[in-house]
Design brief:
The chain is mostly helical. Helices cover 75% and strands 0% of the residues.
């Protein structure tokens, strides 16, 4: 210890004897060396938040059934991760991005990461989530989860139009249905819904190649449009109800139910639907 002290005081003494310009150069070089060492160590060292994320990842991937204690532990880890993200932990953000974009990771883990990111950032979602959703070649279940957890908000015209582009153009029915659910949850429908969208719904429903279960979701969405555009929506619903040879009975029943409810008149009788038809409907939701 005495030798160390002597060397330390010797360095101080030596440093003070240097010219001022030399002292500044030495100080600057020392500062840069210490900074570089700190950055390298920080980069290579696994931080506490990353350890928590790894524990959550291992739990999700290794424990198929998660009971009470397991759920409590996972929720605790998720809360910790969310708090670290809110504080701007960049290393943790990069690690989450790495896990999410790794197609070999489990669907359950990626769903959990989407939920964490939504809780941490609200509607200011990461660009890579939006990019993932925009790419039709990516996993459809993951893309649907991004809509379900990440892009729902009070509603905006831009977001509504984006959802309609997915409904009209995307190849995956699961994406279309999730976009319809998101639209139905908009709180600010008055500023987001318009007659152009109503025309898109009408064209999709009467498309000969339309998926029946998708039609059901679109028809139920018409109830929201009726509140804003009663005359135009009533016309669409009546066309659906009258299309006895073009649409299934459940589609016509939904149209009749909306018309009866919105007009306050029982002018549209419900078609008779068998138990097997209802069973098919619920199995395809």
């Amino acid at each position: 210890m005495k030798k160390i002290k002597r060397k330390f005081f010797y360095l101080i003494h030596w440093f003070r004897k240097r010219p001022l310009k030399r002292q500044i150069i030495i100080s600057f070089i020392s500062f840069m060396i210490v900074s570089i060492i700190y950055l390298v160590v920080s980069f290579l060292t696994v931080s506490q938040p990353e350890i928590i994320l790894l524990r959550l990842k291992n739990s999700i991937n290794s424990e198929g059934i998660c009971h009470d204690q397991c759920l409590i532990q996972r929720n605790f880890w998720q809360t910790q991760i969310i708090n670290y993200l809110k504080k701007g932990n960049r290393k943790l953000e990069r690690k989450i991005k790495k896990y999410f974009l790794d197609e070999s990771e489990s669907e359950k883990l990626r769903e959990t990461l989407i939920i964490i990111l939504q809780e941490a950032s609200g509607n200011n979602q990461s660009d890579y989530l939006v990019d993932y959703l925009d790419n039709p070649t990516n996993n459809p279940e993951t893309r649907a989860k991004i809509i379900q957890y990440s892009l729902n908000d009070l509603g905006s015209p831009e977001l509504a139009n984006y959802y309609f582009s997915l409904i009209a153009d995307d190849q995956e029915v699961i994406i279309k249905k999730e976009a319809i659910k998101a639209l139905s949850n908009f709180k600010n429908k008055k500023n987001c819904f318009n007659l152009t969208q109503l025309e898109v719904i009408n064209n999709l429903i009467f498309n000969s190649t339309a998926e029946t279960s998708l039609n059901h979701s679109l028809i139920l969405l018409l109830a929201d449009y009726y509140d804003l555009f009663p005359r135009e929506t009533k016309s669409v619903l009546e066309n659906i109800y009258q299309a006895k040879n073009g649409l299934d009975k459940i589609s016509r029943a939904f149209a009749a139910d909306i018309l009866n409810s919105k007009t306050g008149k029982i002018n549209w009788s419900l078609p008779e639907i068998s138990d097997s038809e209802w069973s098919d409907y619920f199995n395809n939701q």
